[in-house]
């Protein structure tokens, strides 16, 4: 019997990269997974099909984030296919631009905050009435907020700093309902988001691997397994935590 049998999970950005890894792992543990995505219908169908082929349950949920009414659209679509929620994983995020402070534009700044900070705030706000007591919220942060600063990612990093504050504050607010709230902070992960510089540049790949005592770069499954623990009953006494998921790169 899976640890999450009978549970319903929602993973934002759940059709690709880390999100897909999380969706598939939660489904393997028995959860029925709402695989949220923004635009890529094919990726969402592929992820749902992979879950179902492996014996799990899932459905796709389309809602573009970072636009007016995004949270309302997401939850309206969710309510058509599910009745109540047990696990919310705020994973969706973008890197709008790679620029130091001198060249970040107001448009890029607003866009990355709209998707990475504002959207999860209001998705969570509207989700609380659907999240059952004893539920789980897992937010995806980054090591860039704690000792791994990269000037060219200042805007992205600031959005994840907001996620860290959201995590700590909600943990205190939702504790009386038995709801735990934690953040998982990956370092470099081999996903499509990093493919342009990681997979095509051997020197960059080697440098990223050397940052970890394990001398390798994380895969999506490495992060998904941590999220699975925080989504399970075994994590019942863990809340308000920022979990370093960099493979020891900050040591």
From TrEMBL:
One Pfam family hit: adh_short_C2
Keywords, ordered alphabetically: Oxidoreductase
This protein's record includes keyword Cytoplasm: no
GO molecular-function term, one example from the UniProt record: oxidoreductase activity
Alphabetized PANTHER family for the sequence: OXIDOREDUCTASE, SHORT-CHAIN DEHYDROGENASE/REDUCTASE FAMILY (AFU_ORTHOLOGUE AFUA_5G02870), SHORT-CHAIN DEHYDROGENASE_REDUCTASE FAMILY PROTEIN
Similarity annotation: Belongs to the short-chain dehydrogenases/reductases (SDR) family.
Designated name of the protein: NAD(P)-dependent dehydrogenase (Short-subunit alcohol dehydrogenase family)
């Amino acid at each position: 019997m899976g640890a999450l049998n009978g549970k319903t999970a929602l993973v934002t950005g759940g059709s690709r990269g880390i999100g897909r890894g999380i969706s598939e792992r939660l489904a393997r543990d028995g959860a029925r997974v709402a695989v949220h995505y923004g635009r890529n219908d094919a990726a969402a169908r592929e992820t749902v099909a992979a879950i179902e082929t492996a014996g799990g349950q899932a459905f796709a949920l389309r809602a573009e984030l970072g636009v007016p009414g995004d949270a309302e659209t997401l939850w309206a679509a969710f309510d058509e296919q599910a009745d109540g929620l047990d696990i919310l994983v705020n994973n969706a995020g973008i890197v709008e631009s790679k620029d130091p402070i001198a060249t970040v534009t107001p448009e890029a700044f607003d866009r990355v905050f709209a998707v990475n900070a504002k959207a999860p705030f209001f998705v969570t706000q509207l989700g609380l009435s659907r999240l059952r007591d004893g539920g789980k919220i897992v937010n995806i942060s980054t090591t860039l907020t704690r000792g791994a600063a990269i000037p060219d990612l200042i805007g992205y990093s600031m959005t994840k700093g907001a996620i860290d504050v959201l995590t700590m504050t909600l943990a205190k607010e939702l504790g009386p309902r038995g709801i735990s709230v934690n953040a998982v902070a990956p370092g470099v992960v081999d996903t499509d988001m990093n493919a342009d510089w990681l997979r095509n540049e051997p020197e960059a790949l080697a440098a990223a691997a050397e940052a970890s005592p394990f001398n390798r770069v994380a895969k999506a499954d490495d992060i998904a397994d941590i999220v699975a623990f925080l989504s399970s009953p075994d994590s019942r006494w863990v809340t308000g935590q920022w979990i370093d998921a960099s493979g020891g790169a900050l040591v």
